[in-house]
Specification:
Helices cover 95% and strands 0% of the residues. The protein is an all-alpha fold. The longest helix is centred in the middle third of the chain and has 38 residues. The termini are far apart. The model has no long low-confidence stretch (mean pLDDT 81). Keywords: Membrane, Transmembrane, Transmembrane helix.
Length: 40
């Protein structure tokens, strides 16, 4: 049981940042794109 919990913590620790970056980076790029379009 302890091994599974450690594995889950390591798994979520590796996957969640990747998931967050893969979601946050395109959103940030879209925001900057809209910002430049509306300003120009």
């Amino acid at each position: 049981m302890i091994i599974r919990i450690d594995f889950f913590q390591n798994f979520s620790g590796m996957i969640l940042p990747l998931l967050f970056s893969s979601i946050a980076l395109p959103l940030r790029q879209i925001q900057t794109l809209n910002y430049t379009v509306t300003n120009n």
